[in-house]
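I have been asked to look over a protein record a colleague put together. Alongside the sequence sits a line of tokens, each denoting a local backbone shape. Please read both lines and tell me whether the tokens look consistent with the sequence. I do not need a full report, just your reasoning and any doubts. I have pasted the whole thing underneath without changing anything.
>
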Amino acid sequence: MGHGGRPAPPPPGGHVFPQAASTVLPDPARFFAPGLLSAPLPTNCFFQNFTLKNGDQPEYIHPYSVKSAVAGLTVCYPTRNHSPTFDIQTFAADLTVSSPTDAAAGAAGQPHKVVAFDDLSVTLDFSPSLRAFLVRGCPFVTVAAAGPVDVSVASVHAFLEAAPCDDARTKWRLRMNSGQTFLLYASAPIQLSQASVTQLMAPAFAGVIRIACLPDAAMEAVLDQYSSCYPTAGDAALNRPFCVDYAWRKQGQGDLLMLAHPLHLRLLSQDCSVVKVLDGFKYRSIDGDLVGVVGDSWALKTAPLSTTWHSTRGVSDDGVGEVVAALRKDVDSLASSPITTTSSYFYGKAIARAARLALIAEEVGCPEVIPAVHKFLKATVTPWLDGSFQGNGFLYDSKWGGLVTKQGLQDSGADFGFGIYNDHHYHLGYFLYAIAVLAKIDPSWGRKYMSQAYSMVADFMTLSRKCGASYTRLRTFDLWKLHSWAGGLTEFGDGRNQESTSEAVNGYYSAVLLGLSYGDAHLVSVGATLTAFEMLAAQTWWHVREGEGIYEDDFSGNNRVVGVLWANKRDSGLWFAPPEWKECRLGIQLLPLLPISEALFPDTGFVKDLVTWTTPALARDGVGEGWKGFVYALEGMYDKESALAKTRALSSHDDGNTLTNLLWWLHSRGDSSGRCCWYRQYGH
């Protein structure tokens, strides 16, 4: 800890910001079961579409897209459409399970209910008699019928065959004119008869139905073997540094068969003898092949990550003078350039930008400028924490359980949708960076505003599932995909989305720094773990390498980085820029430029390909100087002198960046000989 004794942290999950009622947030009571409404609710999760508007947009529950509407559950094994600018999974109503009995009783007009959810699953009562256990990575969709109840199995395709595969009539083969074959398994005999070319009916069924697509006939024996054991829920635990432990609850007989995406397979612990990988058992996915894994508990481990205040190698001795000269100018400009925005996002970038100057000053041995940065940060950060800031501020919403902004209370578009839970890890990450630095250099201020700081962390990093918590568990981070989702309470046909992985990294990295300031080893550990997984996911799905095989050749050949990643789609465009603005795509996956950035881009060969791919776009009229700076920053990882020359010629910088920060980055590239390591007396 950088100061004094460690103060007692505030109660876990507590909120300290004033409570307020939003006029733009949807009512969760329509789709969540009453017993769930007393605890904070997820706002950026994998099943969010089921809770918004009519609840009838699909969600991707790997390997199936699933949709609930009109007392039925529709299952799709999605196909892909792709081009040089996008890659998308398309939805078709391959199979729809419903209950004519419930429909006749008037259930068709009733919305489904989310009756349970956790990190790895959601349980949906989509009809009074039918419950779906939607577990991520399960090759079967499992539906329990509280019968006896008539069951309909319908399709947008024509059934060419609907035949039992055994005398007990507990396994059926459903072959459609789409070329698809589905297998239906039942826990009790089921009598399917063809009511029409697109509908099958089964009278008075009670028990469990499991449906699986059969992409390859060779997979049938495996599906048969594991058809009797089904998961009903799952937990992902962050109890160990740099590890996520999965455990599924299951029913039925035998071992549990699940599917792993490419990052799972990379991280699946080699010493985990309780799982067996079935390399030949695969389902296609926009996230790469999903491979069979047998076992009801997994351990996903990654290498430890060093999260430090300063650069890992130090600034080169011959660069210190240039950095210090720029630093003095940038610090002097703080007094003459007040922050004029009231946007929580842009304000956060501005205070984090200033906080970088204090840490660079430590690193290059220029402590005399730190008091000016301290004064600026104290004057600009404090009003957001004590409620005195004019024009905006943080408030607490008890309906869903989380922070909103004053501007977002009545305007869903204000602050980029922060008031409807968009981008929380982005905005709060910038604030936490500034708070961490200010608490480091001013311990008494840090103690005074510790409760506010922890409340901001808790908004998107709470681990608790308890009813007494003020914030939902890990609001933005997806423990199955191992990255964050920025999209909040907005219905999207393609599911949740995230644009900037680097700003997500900044959110968790800033929480680490806050933990360092307060001597909180647990926060440091959790933040570093989430940072590590977020970066691995960015390298897996946002960083595009030609011929790698996750994406089709036309998309991977035309892109080196994804613009916006959706659950069901990959876009080369950004929310704010077309695909041709490649410098923006590179920049939005790099900013803010920090010591952790080098771990986000560890592959120099890929970095060179990315810069080479981006550079022609810089010749376009109107390219922003700020975006150029990020391209030059990456170029500096393999050609420092060229990048320095271009950086010195820039006339302006991104609103979250400075010349000082760019020069610090470039002069801390290369080997570690002849380095200024004055800051090391502070320790990490």
Notes: The longest strand covers residues 199-213. The chain has 18 helices and 30 strands. Residues 1-8, 678-684 have pLDDT under 50 and may be disordered.
